[in-house]
Amino acid sequence: MKTVIGLEIHAELLTKSKAFCSCENSFGKDKNENTCPVCLGLPGALPVLSKGAVITAAKAALALNCTVNNYMRFDRKNYFYPDLPKSYQITQQFYPLSSGGVIEINDKKFRINNIHLEEDAGKIIHTCDASVLDFNRAGVPLIEIVTEPDFSSTDEVIKFVSCVARRLKYADVCDAKMEEGSLRVDVNISVTDTDIPGTRTELKNLSSLRSIKRAIEYEAKRQEEVILSGGSVICETRRFDEATGKTYSMRKKEDISDYRYFAEPDMPPVIITDNDIQNIKDSISELPEKRYKKYTTEFGLNEDTADLILEEKVFSDFYDSSVKIYPAYREIANLMTGEVLRIVSGAHKKICETKLTPESLAEIAKMSQNGEINKNSAKKILTHSAVTGDDPLSFAEKNNLLIKNDTAYLNECIEKVLSKNTKLVSDYKNGNTKLFGFLMGEAMRESDRSANPSIIKELLINKLEDE
Ligand SMILES: [Zn+2]
Question: pLDDT tens for residues 8-38?
């Protein structure tokens, strides 16, 4: 049996205000705190399109390799549901923001059919004795990314959703937090054992990569069993239950005609010029795939290290700023994926919330690369800089962390050790070579452990042979 999957990805846009009113667009406020007559659908209230929503949506489309149309228009999608106070959603059915594009992952092309800008609905919260409504989310700008049915496995779907989420985050248009609902995925899935496409079902609002994987695997198997037992799959919308890992029928799938789409009479069409589009394109920071290529080819990082740095945009930005100051690509990458990551995850902070700066990280990497500090000292200095913001070099000097390569000073230390241990020196000369380790340790201690061990070793051998 062949599985055919298409996706509809809803991404909430990071704008200051909602799409058609000036209410704040933020998460975690008290229920119904961010509402006004427009987003509550009160009689007589008229929508005003937010320019920020259009620009952010266009930015998202461009970051996903998609076109932006010069002409777009809004339409009403009519249906009744308690979380939709107007009884229609403002969306773009006929003239969307983008007519799509292609994203390539591991040499396979996945086509996006269109991206449209629309408003989110409110939230229904079910309690033990009642269902209550919170309209804070009503009117929040959303984009819906509609793909062609180009996916044939869960692995491809997970990779695509992760790629979309990462690009949206890097373009600063969506925080893509699936657990908070700012990125939600609907999956259209059918199975067939012929060349004729099977009847598809839609799995609604999957809110984690794990749920997407489990829901697809369950539903593909369910449809297969229906077909093998001689039945036929019904075209319907299904809900995935996290607890049971099964999908359940919600309702028969609506037709486009059920929604009575028509042009939104309260809003004029939007024209975006080629110049506007170019300006928006120029404002997008370097996307993750491009950075990955730069890290692995130009900077010589291995794939795992590059991936780890790219996990968060702030982290990757920090790395880029640091190597711009001092191009120790691998040294800085190793410090970041080792000690820095340990510090930030231990403190549950983002790198930009610590006192570490790209300048101080570059300075530490420079000292380490030039053999002026050892690995332990680098860690010590990093931890100190992250907490205090102090200059790494002056901290290293004050705390005697700089490796002393001054041979006159080191010879003095060695002589002190040898004169204190004359008995051991003669035992050593009489063949007890095991004593070398002890003398070496004493010499390191005498130099405050700040000497380069290989230099001390060489000087000590010379001294013992001379005497
Ligand atoms: Zn409002």
Answer: 999 999 999 999 999 999 888 899 999 999 9
Name the region of 107 (left: φ>0; alpha: ψ -120 to 50; beta: rest). Answer: left
At 449, the pLDDT band (50, 70, 90 cuts) reads low
The per-residue pLDDT for range 342-377, each reduced to its tens digit, is 998 888 888 988 999 999 999 999 998 888 888 888
| 139 C-alpha to ligand 1 centroid (Å) | 7
Please state, as a whole number, how many other Cβ atoms lie within 10 Å of the Cβ of residue 94: 13
The DSSP bridge partners found for residue 123 are 134
pTM of this structure: 0.82
* Better pLDDT: 402 or 318: 318
CA of 47 to the centre of ligand 1 (A): 9
Interval between CA 119 and ligand 1 midpoint (Å): 11
CA of 172 to the centre of ligand 1 (A): 23
When the pLDDT of each residue in the chain is averaged and rounded to a whole number, the result is: 92
Half-sphere exposure of 7 (CA within 13 A, CB side): 27
* Identity of residue 414: I
Find the 266 Cα to ligand 1 centroid distance in Å. 16
Q: Give the Å distance between the CA of 20 and the centre of ligand 1.
A: 7
Distance, CA of 67 to CA of 55 (rounded, Å): 13
Q: Which of 96, 94, 148 is nearest to 117 (CA)?
A: 96
Question: Are 354 and 343 within 8 A, CB to CB?
Answer: yes
Q: Cα of 94 to ligand 1 centre, how many Å?
A: 25
37 CA distance to ligand 1 middle (Å): 6
pLDDT for 409 equals 80
Residues facing 102 on adjacent strands: 111
φ, ψ (nearest 5 deg) of residue 46: -115, 140
